[in-house]
Amino acid sequence: MILHLLDIEQATESLNGIRMEMTDAAFPLLKGVVAATDVVEACKDVNIAVMLGGYPLKEITLRKDMLSTKEPLVK
């Protein structure tokens, strides 16, 4: 498995840190890690994409409200 990680440019240092940690862990199925801030570069040769995203939560956030904010991403 080769992981392709994508994040915003301001998070480049953290992204590279995650890449190094994953590589150092020497997981037997992990063949490589691509860390990118460019969506085209990050998605090159990807067979399966799992998109995780977050945003600052309000003090009280309902599940339906959280799901409605992510709905436009998957259409």
TrEMBL record:
Family: Belongs to the LDH/MDH superfamily. MDH type 2 family.
PANTHER family, alphabetized: MALATE DEHYDROGENASE
Tagged with keyword Oxidoreductase: yes
Superkingdom, natural source: Eukaryota
Residues spanning the membrane: none
Name assigned to this protein: Malate dehydrogenase
InterPro entries attached to this UniProt entry: Malate_DH_type2 (IPR010945), NAD(P)-bd_dom_sf (IPR036291)
GO-annotated biological processes: malate metabolic process
GO molecular function: malate dehydrogenase activity
Entry keywords, A to Z: Oxidoreductase
Native organism: Quercus suber
